[in-house]
Amino acid sequence: xxxxxxxMGANAVVMMRFDSSEMGQTMTEVVAYGTAAxxxxx
Length: 42
Prior knowledge:
It is a single chain. The chain is elongated. It has one domain (2-37). It has a two-stranded antiparallel ribbon with strand order 1-2. Helices cover 14% and strands 55% of the residues. By secondary structure, the chain is mostly beta strands. The protein contains one helix and two strands; from the N terminus they run H-E-E. The chain has one helix at 2-7, and strands spanning 12-23, 27-37.
């Protein structure tokens, strides 16, 4: 997620969330997502 945000020109990730669900008895899907942002001092 951090690498993707940097590739987009961002220097921060905000509103980060995780989601997970079980797929059958042997697999678990884990998803992490957030919003890339540029943070500047004013």
